[in-house]
Design goal:
The protein is an alpha/beta fold. The protein is built from nine helices and ten strands. The strands form two sheets. A five-stranded parallel beta sheet has the order 3-2-4-1-5, sandwiched between helices. Helix 3 packs across helix 4 and helix 6 packs across helix 7. The longest helix has 20 residues. The structure holds S-adenosylmethionine (SAM). Keywords: Cytoplasm, Methyltransferase, rRNA processing, S-adenosyl-L-methionine, Transferase. Its EC number is 2.1.1.198. It catalyses: cytidine(1402) in 16S rRNA + S-adenosyl-L-methionine = 2'-O-methylcytidine(1402) in 16S rRNA + S-adenosyl-L-homocysteine + H(+). This is Ribosomal RNA small subunit methyltransferase I.
Length: 248
Amino acid sequence: PGTLYVVATPIGNLADITRRAVETLEKVDWVAAEDTRHSKPLLHALGINQTLISLHEHNELQRSEQLLAKLKNGENGALISDAGTPLINDPGYHLVKLLRDEGVNVVPLPGPSAVITALSAAGLPTDRFTYEGFLPAKANKRLAILEGLATEVRTLVFYESPHRLMECLQSMQTAFGEEREIVVARELTKKFEQFVSGKLHDVYGYFIENSDKVRGEFVLMLKGAPEKSEEAGEAALIEQDKMIQVML
Ligand code: SAM
């Protein structure tokens, strides 16, 4: 059988395409893309003329079987999404799972992903983090998920669309308190790239005052809750201070 290459593409800046991605997209027999109309200009800009096959949420199961047959026939293919790394909040999971189950070779070509790009420059702990993707659109469901994460000590990463940014920041204040540290990364790798950081209520206030900045693409990163040992340590220090005061 042939090989499926899972190829990351830029998240805004075309120069972030890797050499290996270009070579691979040129040499494969076809490219499965989330939105062929979206990917055509990308391939065109890279000077690549390829057969595009659509693979999106609504046809992934059926399409995966067809692509499996092609690969079993000895063809090589590539999978790309509209931006960044396929399968990271993008289609491809069913295809990759099917190919793995069927013993077909799947080769990842690393490249941009908004989550890693955002974390790499946010200034929040990155030794452990949890990627939560998009929160539900409904306020009660969103709040329930956030409340479930309120004591999570790892850095939390979310994707959010501009028209839900403000509601999302509000729900976060309810679930985590206004003082929790947040870093909002906007328009990564693009002309208007911006990082806004501070306490939740300050960052919320910033976007209230600068509503022109509530546009583009966003990654939201929250500092995790203090570790239990940290909290216990702080409580012990407060107790110690009290004792010292009493003794004085
Ligand atoms: N597969 C992509 C990846 O690897 O990051 C994610 C695709 S997901 C459908 C799109 C979301 O990713 C956007 O709504 C935004 O939250 C985030 N995103 C993508 N590109 C971004 C960028 N240039 N700046 C900030 N966030 C971005």
